[in-house]
Design a protein that fits this description.
mainly alpha, two-stranded parallel ribbon, 12 helices, 1% strand
Length: 281
């Protein structure tokens, strides 16, 4: 049976989840790296998925007015065709269709996501490789299209990019925001849609993982229900502040800041793996 998680580990990992969920640096990758480097074991995919419920609760509260408006407009548009040109009605559909790729691929490859995809060689490599993708998006993206110009095609492409985040090290926000920049969206427009798009997928993943999170596993760190709750609440509080910060940051700053960080972190992890300081699995 796996080792019991300590309260220090639960608190630290909750902080890491809250700090990294919305930044394009991969929260699942960071949880895996921090777990291995500082605690010598893996907190597991279920712990990651459940604590993400805290950060998604932060999104629900931060964007509560937008979400409520979208839901009302979506149902109104279903009943009254004359309202189907409204942005909020269309946004409801864009979130739905953008969620399909991650839902389908997450179901088909759920076993691989929980096992082989958590290899630190893969995570460190993806941190670097996808840093180059983000850099290319920042360099080539025209960044002129506002959120009002979002189309169904954008939703499908950004939803497909979100599915890449099933691989730890890629980053959900990094994938969707980069795709948005390639499509010509402004950073703020891409980030806002990225937050809304993540809600169904992350909430479904967290709820789906709840039974596994409370079931002691044969390896890795096993968190108690109280530890999961505290880590999730910490992730919520810090995640809420992170949303506001990122939305302000992307208005006036480029994504290159995150590119540099990802490359440095990936290189450090690769060095630790190559020298045998940490284990890849």
């Amino acid at each position: 049976m796996g080792e019991a998680m300590s309260w220090l580990q639960a608190i630290v990992l909750g902080v890491v989840q809250g700090l990294t969920e919305f930044l394009p640096i991969s929260s699942s990758g960071h949880l895996r790296i921090v777990s291995e480097v500082f605690f010598g074991d893996d907190a597991g995919a279920s712990f990651t998925a459940v604590t993400q419920l805290g950060t998604e609760a932060a999104v629900l509260i931060y964007f509560a007015r937008d979400i409520g408006r979208i839901i009302v407009a979506w149902f109104r548009g279903l009943l009254h065709p004359e309202h189907r040109g409204d942005l909020d009605y269309r946004m409801g559909w864009y979130v739905i269709i953008g969620t399909l790729p991650v839902g389908i691929l997450g179901f088909l490859f759920k076993d691989q996501i929980r096992t082989g995809a958590r290899n630190l060689w893969l995570i460190a490599t993806m941190l670097i490789v996808f840093a180059l993708v983000i850099a290319a998006a920042e360099y080539y993206g025209r960044k002129v299209r506002p959120i009002e110009d979002l189309r169904a095609k954008d939703g499908i492409i950004m939803g497909t990019a979100q599915a890449l985040a099933l691989i730890p090290g890629v980053s959900r926000s990094g994938g969707t925001i980069s795709a948005g920049l390639f499509l010509g969206l402004t950073r703020e427009a891409a980030a806002r849609y990225s937050f809304l798009l993540a809600i169904p997928a992350v909430v479904a993943s967290g709820l789906f993982s709840l039974p596994d999170a409370f079931e002691p596993s044969g390896e890795g760190l096993n968190a108690s229900g109280a530890q999961l709750l505290v880590a999730t609440l910490i992730a919520f509080a810090i995640g809420y502040a992170s949303i506001a910060w990122l939305l302000r940051f992307v208005v006036d700053h480029s994504m290159y800041w995150f590119v540099g960080y990802r490359i440095i972190l990936g290189a450090v992890v690769l060095s630790l793996l190559a020298t045998g300081v940490v284990s890849a699995t």
